[in-house]
């Protein structure tokens, strides 16, 4: 069994966090700035010691073990290539430490292999400041790869790249991880990156783990309001709902839905609930009630319509072929099966 | 009516040609977005319109008047900076009122106009606060208010949303667009974010390496890009490029994997233009995984986005293209892709220009 | 165009203003005895090496003509200067870099107080502590020893070195050594392999400042040394002949004295240019 498990309670940064990264898995830790993501990574690597709790790598307790003895590789956000060394020497750096002391012939062989995989063979004699952002990123990855670590820890490694390059590196990173069969523990604040890269996604907020699950689980069945809002673009719509006498009344929408059609859970709903619905689960041009088009945003592959109903603005995702003009009155329909219910006080999902 | 006109505008920094021969008209009430990667000359162009940078060649007209030689203050423009550029020692009210005071507008008039602007922006309750006490979204609104209060001929905005975090940026994007619908001010907006450009612009000016690549509505630049750069830059992910060899009308095109595909309209076009090698451009959402599609490949990775899946499919060694699929189930292994030909583009691989 | 010419003239004037004293000294060192006193000063003259030759006792027979008694003491004192300033600079920079690293990277208790305390040693005018130092040094037997002056200069320069180096090390992202530590190095190794090469420009700048301070120091050298460990500055001032001050030899001594600092600064100028633009090191 090769897994990392850690439990610790750092009063501010992290609270009672328990998380398991499985062997060969791509686990993404997602959260806003200051959520404690980087702290988590630094604790696993040993750059920071937990105040309480334990860290295990491959079942061995790692508390008090120096970073260099943990056999983790850390890829930093700003790459941290040594500017006074060539790319080759940067890649060789870990292998020339006393701990991993490798003879130069073997170093050369390994670097050539890594450089081939990452397509940086032509850059080996250059200095880092002569490389583009994407190339620097690859070299940083290469330095992590040369010594076959037990786990790759990555701290927002794509966030310094421009949008186009980030998309390309995403695919490369994912297939690299699959081909290496390596364990990746990846930190990001970008939910698209998290969804698209992760085998599983762990959502963290204010030092508290909110949910761990596959990207689909996190998107379709968020554990609470925070996860629902944080994952997805544009955000999920939230409405106040009042279940009463077999009907669900939705705040501003002046809409009464048959409760039994939208609520499949067994427990009785409280008298006030938060109802969440994703923008793609509202259909325009159908249904009996109407809203006014407030704004249309063309995103290319699809469009976002902001529909005004009373004082509420609903975000609705529509296909790009759909044409709406501002001020137009349009009927809309909520897809009943897709409504999610949250407790307004605890903000946890019901059912 | 024409509000701003640029004629053969060029700017050279030493040996570096930052902007080359930009000619463009911006009409009254229009929201025009300059879009391009960093270093493409979009900000330099904006700064020349504002008078913060002197053009090496060419002329600038604002409201029919040649302003090329005028200092910024006499051009009647407002400039919203990326980092807000608010004065930290003044309250939000004083910041907004600042340009009016410079013009010597009477006191009551200043009061009235600042309140009016604050109301539109929803800032009324924040007027007494200093910038340090405001959230980044509100700071940006104050900066906007300072621009609006003077009722300038044109608003110039330099990546005003890029300092905000993703969620807030989305909200401000919508608010800014709605504000434009309501007050209809002529706006020239610079960004490197193609989503911002697509969702806000009446017209997009795509720039690269100092030159205009294409000018058109979001729909035009998205569906009918004039060259490979525009096709790749717009859209997330960008357009797929598939090299083809034209075999002749009635025989179709040959793919890199040796198989051939047929499309009458494309064959006709290729015949007319006399091309042999060409590049097929097709956006991910116009490809779908089908039982009997035209292009075969194998799935490299699946990226779930929640409401759709984004596939990376290898269709020839090293040639990976992106495919969108709305179905919930995940496909893997060998698949075949159906092409919606009506949305396909053809490019000349030598010039990079669209063939139409 | 007019501007360019005006700028050129301005720069030329400034250069004349700043370089004139140096020219004067260098020229004097090559002038023959009567030319040194010529009024108006001679800009064209027949050069001579006699002052240098007597200064280094190569032609001692010439020395007597200028009223010099015995041998010139300049060579051993010049050597003292090199040893004392050199060793104290190396020590200040080395210790300063280590302590600066600690202040920069670790949470040191009372960090700000300590840093201020270190700096406060700099605020004292040296003349105030001159007498106490003399008394203490006499008690410890450090008067007129190399080690005594080395320790003293190191103490004075250390505060400066710590502050300067802290600024440079703060600029180097922490992740540099953290990356190395994860990659299998100890902190100590990471410091030498990664931080030190990055801090080279800072070290060069600090070393130049320390060297200049130690090299030029006059007051303590005058009161704490007499023979064995006396450095060049007090000794140049003391070059006198029986028939008045030997200006030619003083000028030669000063010129020779200028050289090491110029050479050293020239050697490290590559780093210096980067190092002197504090805080704008490109990341």
From TrEMBL, chain C:
Keyword Transmembrane helix tagged: yes
Cell membrane recorded as keyword: yes
Name the UniProt record assigns to this protein: Carbohydrate ABC transporter permease
Subcellular location: Cell membrane
Transmembrane region(s): 9-26, 78-102, 114-135, 147-169, 190-215, 250-268
GO annotations of cellular component type: plasma membrane
Primary location group: membrane
ABC transmembrane type-1 domain mapped to chain residues: 78-268
Membrane topology value: Multi-pass membrane protein
SUPFAM superfamilies: MetI-like (SSF161098)
């Amino acid at each position: 069994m090769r897994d990392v498990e850690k439990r610790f309670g750092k009063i501010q940064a992290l609270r009672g966090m328990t998380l398991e990264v499985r062997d060969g898995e791509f686990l993404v830790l997602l959260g806003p700035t200051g959520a404690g993501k980087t702290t988590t990574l630094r604790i696993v690597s040993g750059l920071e010691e937990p105040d309480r709790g334990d860290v295990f790598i491959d079942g061995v307790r790692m508390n008090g073990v120096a970073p260099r003895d943990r056999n983790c590789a850390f890829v930093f956000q700003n790459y941290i290539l040594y500017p006074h060394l060539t790319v080759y020497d940067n890649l060789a750096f870990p292998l020339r430490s006393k701990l991993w002391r490798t003879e130069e012939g073997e170093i050369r062989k390994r670097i050539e292999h890594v450089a081939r995989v990452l397509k940086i063979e032509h850059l080996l004699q250059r200095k880092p400041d002569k490389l583009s952002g994407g190339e620097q990123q690859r070299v940083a990855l290469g330095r992590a790869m040369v010594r076959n670590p037990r786990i790759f820890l990555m701290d927002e490694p794509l966030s310094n790249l421009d949008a186009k390059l980030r998309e390309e590196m995403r695919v490369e990173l994912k297939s690299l991880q699959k081909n290496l069969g390596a364990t990746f523990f990846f930190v990001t604040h970008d939910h698209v990156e998290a969804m698209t890269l992760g085998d599983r996604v762990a959502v963290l907020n204010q030092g508290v783990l909110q949910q761990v699950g596959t990207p689909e689980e996190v998107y379709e069945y968020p554990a609470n309001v925070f996860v629902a809002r944080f994952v997805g673009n544009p955000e999920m719509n939230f409405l106040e709902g009042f279940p009463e006498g077999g009907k669900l009344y939705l705040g501003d929408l002046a809409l009464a839905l048959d409760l039994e059609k939208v609520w499949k859970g067994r427990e009785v709903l409280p008298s006030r609930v938060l109802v969440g619905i994703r923008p793609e689960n509202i259909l325009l041009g159908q249904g009996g009630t109407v809203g006014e088009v407030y704004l249309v945003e063309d995103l290319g592959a699809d469009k976002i319509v902001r529909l005004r109903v009373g004082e509420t603005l609903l975000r609705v995702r529509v296909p790009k072929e759909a044409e709406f003009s501002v001020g137009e009155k349009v009927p809309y329909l909520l897809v009943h099966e897709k409504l999610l219910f949250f407790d307004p006080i605890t903000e946890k999902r019901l059912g | 009516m024409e509000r701003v006109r640029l004629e053969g505008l060029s700017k050279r920094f030493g040996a570096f040609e930052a902007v080359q021969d930009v000619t463009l008209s911006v009409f009254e009430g229009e929201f025009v977005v300059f879009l391009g990667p960093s270093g493409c000359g979009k900000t330099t162009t904006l700064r020349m319109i504002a008078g913060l940078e002197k053009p090496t060649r060419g002329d600038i007209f604002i409201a029919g008047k040649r302003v090329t030689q005028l200092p910024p203050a006499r051009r009647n423009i407002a400039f919203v900076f990326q980092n807000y550029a608010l004065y930290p020692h003044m309250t939000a009210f004083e910041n907004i009122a600042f340009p009016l005071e410079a013009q010597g507008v009477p006191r009551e008039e200043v009061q009235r106009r600042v309140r009016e602007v604050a109301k539109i922006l929803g800032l009324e309750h924040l007027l007494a606060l200093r910038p340090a006490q405001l959230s980044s979204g509100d700071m940006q609104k104050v900066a906007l208010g300072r621009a609006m209060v003077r009722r300038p001929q044109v608003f110039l905005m330099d990546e005003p949303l890029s300092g905000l975090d993703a969620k807030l940026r989305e909200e401000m994007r919508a608010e800014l667009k709605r504000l434009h619908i309501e007050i209809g001010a002529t706006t020239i907006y610079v960004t490197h974010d193609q989503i911002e450009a697509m969702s806000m612009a009446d017209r997009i000016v795509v720039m690269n390496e100092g030159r205009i690549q294409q000018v058109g509505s979001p729909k035009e630049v998205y569906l009918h890009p004039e060259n490979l750069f525009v096709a790749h830059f717009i859209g997330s992910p960008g357009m797929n490029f598939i090299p083809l060899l034209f075999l002749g009308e009635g025989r179709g095109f040959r793919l890199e994997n040796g198989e051939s595909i047929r499309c009458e309209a494309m064959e006709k076009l290729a015949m007319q233009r006399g091309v042999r090698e060409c590049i097929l451009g097709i956006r991910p959402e116009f490809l779908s995984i089908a039982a009997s599609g035209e292009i075969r490949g194998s799935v490299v990775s699946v990226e779930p986005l929640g409401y759709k899946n984004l596939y990376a499919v290898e269709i020839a060694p090293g040639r990976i293209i992106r495919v969108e699929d709305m179905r919930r189930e995940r496909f893997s292994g060998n698949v075949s892709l159906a092409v919606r030909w009506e949305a396909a583009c053809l490019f000349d691989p030598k010039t990079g220009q669209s063939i139409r | 165009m007019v501007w360019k010419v005006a700028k050129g003239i301005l720069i030329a004037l400034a250069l004349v203003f700043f370089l004139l004293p140096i020219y004067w000294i260098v020229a004097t060192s090559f002038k023959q005895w009567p030319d040194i006193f010529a009024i108006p000063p001679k800009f064209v003259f027949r050069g001579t090496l006699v002052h240098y030759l007597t200064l280094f006792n190569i032609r001692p027979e010439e020395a007597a003509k200028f009223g010099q008694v015995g041998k010139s003491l300049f060579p051993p004192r010049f050597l003292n200067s090199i040893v004392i300033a050199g060793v104290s600079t190396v020590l200040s920079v080395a210790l300063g870099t280590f302590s600066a690293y600690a202040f920069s990277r670790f949470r040191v208790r009372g960090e700000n107080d300590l840093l201020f305390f270190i700096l406060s040693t700099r605020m004292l005018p040296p003349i105030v502590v001159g007498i106490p130092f003399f008394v203490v040094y006499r008690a410890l037997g450090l008067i007129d020893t190399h080690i005594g002056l080395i320790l003293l200069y190191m103490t004075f320069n250390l505060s400066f070195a710590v502050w300067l180096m802290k600024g440079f090390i703060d600029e180097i992202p922490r992740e540099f050594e953290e990356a190395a530590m994860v990659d299998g190095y100890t902190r100590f190794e990471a410091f030498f392999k990664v931080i030190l090469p990055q801090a080279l420009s800072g070290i060069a700048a600090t070393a130049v400042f320390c060297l200049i301070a130690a090299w030029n120091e006059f007051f303590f050298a005058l009161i704490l040394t007499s023979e064995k460990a006396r450095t060049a500055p007090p000794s140049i001032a003391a070059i006198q002949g029986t028939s008045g001050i030997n200006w030619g030899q003083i000028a030669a001594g000063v010129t020779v004295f200028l050289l090491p600092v110029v050479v050293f600064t020239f050697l490290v100028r590559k780093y210096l240019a980067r190092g002197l633009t504090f805080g704008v090191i490109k990341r």
